Amino acid sequence: MCGATGRQGGATTRKLLRDGWQVRALTRNPGSAPARALAVQGATLVQANLDDPTSLDNALDGAHGVFGVTDFWEHGFDKEIRMGSNLIECAKRADIGHFVFSSVGATERTKGLGITHFEAKAEIEDRLLRSGLSWTILRPVTFMENIITPRFRRAICERGILRFGFNRQRTFQMVAMDDLAVFAALAFDDDPRVKGRTTEIASDAFTMDEWAQALGVQMKRPVKYSVVTPAQLHVASAFIAITGRQALYKAGPSLINQFRWNNNSPIGGWDADIEQLRSIHPAMLTLKDWIKTIDWTKGLNSKI
């Protein structure tokens, strides 16, 4: 399990553990609090680094499957591709039974638009398809969990403002990480509706005003939506670049290009078949259901 101490890998690790799988949680720092928490839940911690093939060879030896996730914002375009390629090559050497890669929605529809965090995932997808491994590619759209990072949560909790870079009145698709984890687990369970397929995944679709209203109902106080303009995105991107905080904020020129594409596309760019997905996973979370799973008080004292 790559990225086990992160959000996608963590959600998938917990789901597989609940389903009775033995999970090796790959981590650069087995002594970290998130790693120790996974160990308490039953995961086996394995020290490994996607940029160190020898550590990956050791980690994958004898494993049945791999859940692969890579991070553009922490590592950049070239290094993300190299790390994804390392994982694929090591999986081949280990004769892995099945490789599930968490990519990103719309990689086939955004070539040449300067959305480099999509283009890196597209390159890794291509290398996986050419590897000869048994594969499943999951393409999640924007994660609901993006708004519980400290900078969003603080604005919501302290000022009653939800800020995002999308038109307030048009529908936008988002996905809960727990739902992504369910589809990953189905692939490892050999479900033919998922395994061996490329699937764009969203949990629900709604307008930004509906999003803010649902937050307000849960928090029992008004929440207003504020559109982040392209000019504001450019200023924020410049500040993030100067301070070297791309990994923390997961933002930069590539994200500006993504929001331009989102706003100029008829359906916000994303195109998951939510009705079909729900037929496979009936308990998929709606926005209102997901909001109820979050303790919104935790953002009140955020310093970020």
Report on this structure.
This protein has 304 residues and is of the alpha/beta class. Helices cover 46% and strands 14% of the residues. The protein contains 14 helices and eleven strands. The strands form four sheets. The protein has a four-stranded parallel β-sheet with strand order 3-4-5-9, sandwiched between helices. The protein has a three-stranded mixed β-sheet with strand order 6-8-10. Strand 1, helix 2 (33-41) and strand 2 (44-47) form a beta-alpha-beta unit. Helix 1 (7-18) crosses helix 8, helix 5 (77-93) packs parallel to helix 6 (116-129) and helix 10 (230-243) packs antiparallel against helix 12 (253-264). Residues 300-304 have low confidence and may be disordered.
Q: What attributes does this structure have?
A:
disordered C terminus, 304 residues, globular, alpha/beta, three-stranded mixed sheet, four-stranded parallel sheet, 14 helices
Task: Give the overall shape.
Answer: globular
Radius of gyration: 19 Å
Measured distance between first and last alpha carbons? 29 Å
What is the arithmetic mean of pLDDT?
92
Number of extended strands: 11
Secondary structure: helix percent: 40-55%
The quaternary structure here is single chain
